[in-house]
Amino acid sequence: MSLFITFEGGEGCGKSVQAKALYRRLSKLAIPALLTHEPGGTSLGKKLARCLKWAQNTDLSPLTELLLFNASRAQLIDEVIRPNLKRGKTVICDRYADSTTAYQGYGRGLDLEMVKAINNAATQGLKPNLTVLLDIPAEEGLARKSTKRQDRFEQEDIAFHQRVRDGYHKMAANDPERWLVIDGSKSKEEIAEIIWQRVSRLLSEKGLR
């Protein structure tokens, strides 16, 4: 038995902090766990991530983004996620296929059915048991990151980021059993506890604790 948990949200929502906090909590309880992220997590993924997020003087089309993100994802699943799930580990992934639907589908305006089909090909149907969405207004998230060097997506206008947020809301509403939506403006401690309550229940249901 294993558990697959993903973290989603717009820029600056705090998902990476919470993914790491959950990983540390599981490790302290001696529950076998692995933390990974998208894009990246493998040698190929790191190269694609640099291109996708930091490419200079390269105008990547939305379709190119879609395909590159899914190339990175397919490799991560084959090399990291599936093998560790088969070993019975709880795998935590900072971003997954829902990010592509939100950013390239809702944000960039690509056909959602096409995005779904390509995501499904890359994931081979592997879905998370739980997806945590940290939700904050786009302006607030971008303000949190304003002092750092901005990647290609952070440089997009506010309308793009609002479309991404709206997309996440629609996905969560369509699959409430899988999604846990949390107000990202709460304290880190409050958010961590809300996440742990849900994860702890899932672990008990699967006999993992």
Structure description:
It is a single chain. With 209 residues, the protein is an alpha/beta fold. The chain has a single domain (3-205), classed as Rossmann fold, CATH 3.40.50.300. Helices cover 56% and strands 13% of the residues. The chain has eight helices and five strands; from the N terminus they run βαβααβααβααβα. The chain has helices at 15-28, 43-54, 62-86, 97-107, 112-123, 138-144, 158-174, 188-205, and strands spanning 3-8, 33-37, 90-94, 130-135, 179-183. It has a five-stranded parallel sheet with strand order 2-3-1-4-5, sandwiched between helices. The mean pLDDT is 94.
Arithmetic mean pLDDT: 94
Uncertain runs are: none
The overall strand count is 5
Task: Quote the distance from N terminus to C terminus.
Answer: 11 Å
CATH superfamily: P-loop containing nucleotide triphosphate hydrolases
